Amino acid sequence: MITGKQRSELKKLAQELKPAVMIGKDEVTPAIIQSIDEYLTAHELVKVQIQEGSLADPKETANDIAKELGAEFVQAIGRRFVLYRQAADPDKRKIYI
């Protein structure tokens, strides 16, 4: 569980990110979950965009994916949301909060 201060730092880092994964009208598929998982493993922080035409709710979708992947929900703004998962290997950590 991340603290409010840590969440604030992650929000600052996420401002510069472009969405790495897009969720389309098919909503969340196993391929999307795998893409997010791989991105979190490599970068620890991911921004996801839900495209127009999708009926997915950003906060609900983000929390479901976070729970499935063992990640933390950082924020949702509009149709975008940010997830964070600390690297398991201390040598591969890029974000120190």
Protein architecture, described:
The chain has 97 residues and is of the alpha+beta class. It contains 3 helices and 4 strands, in the order H-E-H-E-H-E-E. The protein has helices spanning 4-15, 30-43, 58-69, and strands spanning 21-23, 45-50, 72-77, 80-84. It has a 4-stranded mixed beta sheet with strand order 1-2-4-3, with helices on both faces. The mean pLDDT is 92.
Quick structural overview:
This protein has 97 residues and is of the alpha+beta class. It has helices spanning 4-15, 30-43, 58-69, and strands spanning 21-23, 45-50, 72-77, 80-84. The radius of gyration is 13 Å and the shape is globular.
Stretches with pLDDT under 50, minimum 5 residues: none
User: In whole angstroms, how far apart are the ends?
Assistant: 12 Å
Provide the structure class. Answer: alpha+beta
Strand order of the largest sheet: 1-2-4-3
Count every helix, treating DSSP H or I runs of 4 or more residues as helices: 3
Give the overall shape, derived from the CA principal axes.
Answer: globular
Order of helices and strands: HEHEHEE
Specify Rg, calculated over alpha carbons. 13 Å
- Can you give the helix content as a percent range? 25-40%
- Summed over residues and divided by their number, the pLDDT gives a mean of 92
Number of strands: 4
Largest sheet: 4 strands, mixed
